[in-house]
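tool_call predict_complex ligand=magnesium ion
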Amino acid sequence: MRYSEMFLPTVRETPSDAEIASHKLMIRAGMIRKLATGVYSVLPLGYRVVKKVEAIIREEMDRAGAQEVYLPAVQPAELWQESGRWKMYGKELLRFKDRHNREYCIGPTHEEVITDLVRNEIKTYRQLPRNLYQIQTKFRDEIRPRFGVMRCREFDMKDAYSFDIDSEGADISYQKMYDAYSRIFSRMGLKFRAVEADTGNIGGSFSHEFMVIADTGEDALIFCTKCNYAANLEKAEVAKPEKKAVNPSAFLALETVHTPNVRTIEEVSKFLKVKPGEIVKTLIFQADSKPVAVLIRGDEEVNEAKLRSFLGCDILELATDDVVLAVTGSPKGFAGAIGVKADIYADDSLMNMVNVVMGGNKEDYHVRNVNNGRDFQVKAFADLRVILKTDPCPRCGSRLRFAKGIEVGHVFKLGDKYSKAMRATYLDKNGKEQYMVMGCYGIGVGRTVAAIIEQNNDDKGIVWPMSVSPFQVVVVPVNVNEKTLAEAAENLYGALRKKGIEVLLDERDERAGVKFNDADLIGIPLRITLGPKKLAEGEAEVLVRKTGKTKSLKLEKIPATISGMVKRGLRKHP
Ligand code: ATP
Ligand code: MG
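tool_result ok
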């Protein structure tokens, strides 16, 4: 490709609305332009990268035995009513009506459509297992689109869906996708972790998120420094403390203390001269509208995802002021467990605590020396809190590390959630009707491109890994008005292309500095510079973008040497 012919509008200034490197650089390198909030056009340079990313995904999906389909973006409401998600999905679902007043949505995901297709076509166990995938447009009306294509509203997703005769089969399908994802992201040169993730309320299911490690990531994750345990912070299990026998003779007498206007843990801690860890917070939640009281240490936080799955509810919210008043008899800030009109659940870390400080369920009062069993009754202890940096690994007890990550992929064992709701069944060997067992597997294409940039950039611009780079080599004659330079560049361009190398020839009549800056900005891994001095000796200079190292090579040697460098670059992430 010739630079002068390419639609490649690079920008020197940093765009004012971009916060993170990938967003800034995708605009500056002329890869994307915004059309509307969370809606982007992809320009030629960007689309070259997208196609490389998609090609890697396709290769690995095909290799894992999945078959490509292409499903409609427009989906009828009836399917979503059948699965129960028409109501559940909320405002992220873009709904509309056609001229006959029929309701539709633009698919944010395709479980309903694929389940409908498969239930109509697959009848017996002999036709299973099947894994179908597509790369296709999704629309999600995100509440806060940001970071360019990282969290946008219209985006391309690779989504795959597996159908098996039983749970064991589904586990095999899941593992195949897990392995394929590992290969996909390795080939893109990404540093990533597959972490255990929350599955909401789908019984018996599990899921992993593929997280690209980056400080700008929106997700928090933990991983063990010794064993394989890694989890989304939301899901990370806390090691259960050992249960000790509590001796009621150690219980001290209850003491009510007047604590005017002392509400927060810090205020209580200061006022009563106790550590935050010796105070117990009582939080009132509404779980599908039913109030529950949750006890947690003052220095810890309730993990709402864990609480939701523990309670098995769909909607979990902190109780409104009215409910707090009705349940505890006092305004917020003084809730305690004694006499509370709701079931009481406590985090495991309270199992062995005695003589704690708590809210008094009365405005401006707290109580000391409160004890479970004597003053109130915990219905169940469970792991309900957010893991802390000081916690040991729940599997092996070693130290944990915390990191930020970008979720680029998600593999999910769905079980029979959709096949039951939508009656996707098959006849087993005995002619008996059974539900198919499903899995779903997504990769955000644009988000993956952005994540690659987050991990591969410097102050000059993007530094593409060879496997996804829009071009493998850029050839830069420093002055196209010098005939010998221009000719040598043309010759080299031809010779490299003959070798099957993807070359950008920067034959623009621009200063060398401008061309170098653009080459650095758009991140081409190898640059060949043709200058008068070197050319007089029959040589050109090869620069490796990532290391900044240069070497001079004889012109006739360049095609073979560059071809070797490109191949090695591609092999690095097999
Ligand atoms: P998130 O928690 O970031 O909103 P999600 O759990 O909603 O993601 P999935 O439903 O699992 O995402 O979608 C599969 C993949 O699609 C994600 O792993 C991500 O790569 C991509 N994706 C999801 N939402 C967006 C978005 N708004 N913009 C770009 N890519 C997205
Ligand atoms: Mg989402």
